[in-house]
Design a protein that fits this description.
Layout: E1 7-10, E2 24-25, H1 32-44, E3 48-49, E4 52-54, E5 59-60, E6 70-71, E7 75-78, H2 80-85, E8 90-93, E9 104-107, H3 130-138, H4 146-168, H5 172-189
Parallel strand pairs: 4-8
Antiparallel strand pairs: 1-7, 2-6, 3-7, 5-6, 8-9
Length: about 190
């Protein structure tokens, strides 16, 4: 399915759609076997959770104190094509109100807006601060799913390399053209 992005909204009731033990609070711990199976299924299908914020758990049994169970049963997952086409898609987990499930508000920003294409310049690797700039940018914290963190780290590196370019190489094409003109002028004089 090259070139087509999609996402699904999953809601669980009978099946465990938990990815991590921290996605459930309550007296009975989640099944590690079911979590491993769900994670493997997502991995096999090349699917990732979309970045979400707001309430951490999307379902509660609405009971009091010790009998209360909260889980992240509802989630939005997507394929890499969706993440590339709509990298700024976010999921806001709203308050559940009277329901036992929290509504998920999906915000999709169209990425059709023309962007200046990022081009890597080989000369950057020769810069004395290159390794430090890349390591520092890669080390910046990014929260979210594995795929979201990966894209976030790449974005940090891109921004840092652009800053390095502006401080050390900005206008290099213009400088090369001016140097060629100066060289031609010198050759004509000789």
């Amino acid at each position: 399915m090259v070139g087509y992005g999609f996402f699904w909204i999953l809601g669980g009731s009978l099946l465990s759609l938990l990815r991590d033990i921290e996605e459930r609070l309550g007296p009975n711990p989640p099944s590690v076997t079911e979590m491993m199976a769900f994670n493997q299924c997502l991995l096999d299908c090349t699917l990732e959770d979309l970045h979400s914020f707001g309430c951490e758990h999307t379902w509660t049994n609405k009971r009091e104190a010790i009998a209360r169970v909260c889980s992240r049963l509802d989630r939005v997952i997507s394929n890499p094509s969706w993440l590339i086409e709509y990298p700024n898609t976010q999921v806001n987990v709203l308050s559940s109100g009277i329901s036992d499930h929290s509504p998920l508000l999906i915000t999709v920003q169209d990425s059709y807006k023309p962007k200046k294409q990022f081009s890597y310049l080989n000369c950057w690797a020769d810069h004395k601060e290159y390794d430090e700039v890349v390591l520092q940018a890669w080390g910046l914290p990014v929260r979210g799913s594995v795929m979201f963190r990966f894209f976030g780290k790449l974005k940090h590196v891109r921004q840092s390399l652009i800053k390095l370019h502006h401080t050390s190489y900005y206008g290099i094409s213009k400088k090369v053209q001016e140097a060629k003109k100066d060289l031609e002028a010198c050759q004509i004089q000789l």
